[in-house]
Amino acid sequence: MPNYAYFDHDADVGIIGRGDRLEDAFVAAAEGMFALMVNLDDIRPATTVRFAFDEPDPELALAVWLNRLLAEARAAGLIFGRFRLTRENGRWVGEASGEPWRADLERGVEVKGATLTALAVEQRNGLWEARCVLDV
């Protein structure tokens, strides 16, 4: 069962990632974002991209994380299906694995970016939740 869910927001899509740790919630949000574009089970982890960014505010870090993943995927012509994220203080180190788009991958909704709309990162009932609205 995925650790992400969606919520309605006008013409866009809201995403909620959940996890035991903040980083897990961010990874779940990334999975949910890319699951809008393709069936994640169809993606082979042939190429891995690593990057780091500094952002002490967890809410802004969520938007940076998701937008950076989109930018890395577009720049390399990849679609990602697996994600890892660690943090130490305000420094985040991310990793995404995927492959170039193949003709047999069914394309879903194009995600243009993660917005600051409904941006929230908080703990609820012992789980971290990371939410924002995706521009589709």
Main beta sheet strand tally, sense and closure:
5 strands, antiparallel
Question: How much is the radius of gyration in Å?
Answer: 14 Å
- Arithmetic mean of pLDDT: 95
Shape: globular
Q: Catalogue the unreliable spans.
A: none
Distance between the termini: 24 Å
Sheet-strand content, in percent, reads 35-45%
Structural class estimated from helices and strands: alpha+beta
Order of helices and strands: EEHEHEEEEE
How many H/I helices? 2
The share of residues in helices is 25-40%
The total of beta strands comes to: 8
Structure characterization notes:
This protein has 136 residues and is α+β, with helices and mostly antiparallel strands. The chain is built from 2 helices and 8 strands, in the order E-E-H-E-H-E-E-E-E-E. The radius of gyration is 14 Å and the shape is globular. The protein starts with a strand and ends with a strand. The mean pLDDT is 95.
Main attributes?
136 residues; alpha+beta; 5-stranded antiparallel beta sheet; 3-stranded antiparallel beta sheet; globular
Topology:
Elements: E1 4-9, E2 12-19, H1 22-37, E3 47-54, H2 58-76, E4 78-88, E5 91-100, E6 113-114, E7 120-124, E8 127-135
Antiparallel strand pairs: 1-2, 2-8, 3-5, 4-5, 6-8, 7-8
Q: What's the gist of this structure?
A:
The protein is 26% helix and 43% strand. It has 136 residues and is α+β, with helices and mostly antiparallel strands.
